[in-house]
Amino acid sequence: MKNILVTGGAGFIGSNFIQYILDKEDDILLINLDLLTYAGNLENLRDCENDKRYHFVKGDIRDRALVGKLFAQYDFDTVVHFAAESHVDRSITEPEVFLTTNVLGTQVLLDAAKAHWKLDLDNKYARDYRAGVRYLQVSTDEVYGALGKTGMFTETTPLAPNSPYSASKASADLMVRAYHQTFGLPVSITRCSNNYGPYQFPEKLIPLMIHNAEKDKPLPVYGDGMQIRDWLHVKDHCAAIWMVLQAGKAGEVYNIGGNNEKTNLEIVRLILAELGKPESLISYVQDRPGHDRRYAIDNTKITTELGWKPAYTFEQGIHETIAWYQQHRSWLEHIDSGAYEAYYERMYGVAT
Ligand code: NAD
Ligand code: TYD
């Protein structure tokens, strides 16, 4: 059996990952450690809350005592670290929490994994670990900075983050790398492009635009809307992470992306067309400071070395995603009204 610590499992990608694993693996225990910040929502996990293979712990990855206690209690052999402050716009207005959560929180997890898995903890030169253990850092293509009209990010592209968010993720990646180089900790780093799919918090482009369009509210497009992102369905990201855990080499970075570059305007127009709403709802607003112009992932390494490839075409994935948000209006409404906090209180008897 695998005992997996999943951090940030109540967020967008983490909750999709938990559901993905429970759907395909029987012999597994998933412990979801999540602080339930504004972005964490246990309603995302309603379908698995009674599953014996899954357990939720409310807590902070920065809490060393708690993380150590969980390692002792559950004897994890795997860590999949999603928990983060993840929104670029918030990192521009409040950078500090991005450093404490994304960088220091990562270090707490690395220390706990090292302390629990290293065979001879007292010997600083020893590099042997329990067999079969792995720490996986879920990172982002944003650590590479911005591209011009041509080129793609490979795993050896120098890190050049531009926002406090991407700088904090790059810092965390470097700490993960250092724990491998210095201590021999068996780690993997994945760097994925922009995800879309169910349960994404409606501050991010796609759910925000769907939400606003449905309410006939303006759709705020930053600058000229010609920035490019390389979109991947969240389930394809989850499958790639699982594959890296199974077959990825320790100490390696794997880029994840589906060769699917779109301008923001293309995305917004597609959403309006699917919902039958007029383009007059588009509202050009002041650009985001330091806005990265273009991201594009070269996925050669993960496709050739591990055999991963996306299962979704963008056309199918985005169509299903828009339909999902239409069919789950109450999920969005609960976030709007703060009702998901009341749900937590009902479920667990205490406020978030
Ligand atoms: P999200 O904001 O939806 O979820 C983050 C989760 O982490 C939330 O449930 C939140 O409550 C939890 N959290 C925050 N601070 C915490 C703390 N101190 N202790 C414990 N839990 C805490 O984010 P997401 O979009 O699901 O992204 C997950 C990870 O994937 C992040 O590390 C992000 O950098 C990375 N990533 C995201 C994308 C994307 O397109 N969304 C792409 C590539 C990589
Ligand atoms: P976002 O979903 O915040 O992801 P990231 O910044 O991590 O790529 O934004 C995706 C793109 O959409 C990005 O170029 C910024 C743009 N954007 C808008 O134009 N308007 C908006 O209201 C938001 C949230 C994003």
Radius of gyration: 20 Å
Order of helices and strands: EHEEHEHHEHEEHEEEHEEHEHHHH
What strand order characterises the main sheet? 3-2-1-4-5-6-11
Distance between the ends: 32 Å
Share in helix: 40-55%
- Largest sheet: number of strands, sense, barrel closure: 7 strands, parallel
* Residue runs with pLDDT of under 50 for 5 or more positions: none
Q: Helix/strand-derived class?
A: alpha/beta
Give the overall form. globular
Amount of beta strand? 15-25%
Bound molecules: nicotinamide-adenine-dinucleotide, thymidine-5'-diphosphate
The count of helical stretches stands at 12
Q: State mean pLDDT (0 to 100 scale).
A: 96
Annotation, overall tally of beta strands: 13
Question: Which secondary structure elements does this structure contain, and how are they paired or packed?
Answer:
Blueprint: E1 2-7, H1 12-24, E2 28-34, E3 54-58, H2 64-74, E4 78-81, H3 88-93, H4 96-117, E5 134-140, H5 164-183, E6 187-192, E7 195-196, H6 205-214, E8 219-222, E9 228-230, E10 232-233, H7 234-247, E11 252-256, E12 261-263, H8 264-275, E13 282-285, H9 300-305, H10 314-327, H11 329-337, H12 339-348
Parallel strand pairs: 1-2, 1-4, 2-3, 4-5, 5-6, 6-11, 7-10, 8-13
Antiparallel strand pairs: 9-12
